[in-house]
From TrEMBL:
One annotated GO molecular function: kinase activity
Protein origin, superkingdom: Bacteria
EC number, as in UniProt: 2.7.13.3
Keywords: Kinase, Membrane, Phosphoprotein, Transferase, Transmembrane, Transmembrane helix, Two-component regulatory system
Listed name of the protein: histidine kinase
Lineage: Bacteria, Pseudomonadati, Pseudomonadota, Alphaproteobacteria, Sphingomonadales
Catalytic activity: ATP + protein L-histidine = ADP + protein N-phospho-L-histidine
Record's keyword annotation contains Ligase: no
Gene: phoR
Organism: Tsuneonella deserti
Keyword Transferase: yes
Residue span(s) of domain Histidine kinase: 41-259
Top EC class, one word: transferase
Covered range of the whole protein: 135 to 393 of 393
Amino acid sequence: GPQSSWQMSRQPFGDRFALVELINRTAEIDISRAHTDFVANASHELRTPLASIIGYVETLIDKSATIEPEQRERFLGIVLREARRLQELVADLMSLSQIEAEKHDQPREHVDLVALAGRAARDSAGAARHDRLRLGGQAAPLAVLGDPKQLEQLVRNLVDNALKYGAADSEVTVEVENDGRGMAVLKVRDRGDGIPSQHIPHLTRRFYRVDPGRSRAAGGTGLGLAIVKHIVERHRGRLDIASRVGEGTTVTVRLPIAS
Ligand code: ADP
């Protein structure tokens, strides 16, 4: 542990170097612990739907079991739902590792954030929820240096959460504005239950959920905001989450405007 590395390096390096060494090693330990936790969490998230799929398929192909047609239908529905959950999880895990792999390579394409946000938000709402979406902010184009695919994913994840956790039929607002100080400001606002403040600092952690049952029932992977955070970091931007219980949540992303 960190204690023993402190003891060991005390003699050869003296106190100052030992302290630097201690900090370095503690950081390493933290990173490897975070990695182990992540692998453990990811395995658990993958194992649960897999176990359910295997269980139901085993029952369905068991010749000695008598299964009513309605029950058969229901089991197949569960198998499909769990298989889709696996598909989403794998897609999100791949996105996350892709974004992380590119984190030092700053995106250079000029992207109009106003058009992109509108498009991605409509995409995310789809036909079924499009009447809940309100697009505001400026109409004039606003260019940022970005990776269009990742920025679309960022907007989709935020709008998806706002629709998912917003009260049924409540409005979700998406707007992009120039703050006049070199930043493009994207806001996604919902009138949902809001998030108790003690959870807010943890929301961008992988698989962190305020209400795991609700997230899973809504088809959430627990990776949406972790992906958003990584995309924002790669774009040298800022992410802020403000929320009031009983009122709703506003997520603000600031990205440098392309000169
Ligand atoms: P999930 O797939 O569970 O939605 P996210 O990483 O996107 O994962 O979000 C993490 C958690 O943050 C969610 O499980 C939910 O509890 C909370 N959350 C995210 N966005 C909102 C929102 N707009 N309103 C209320 N809670 C939210």
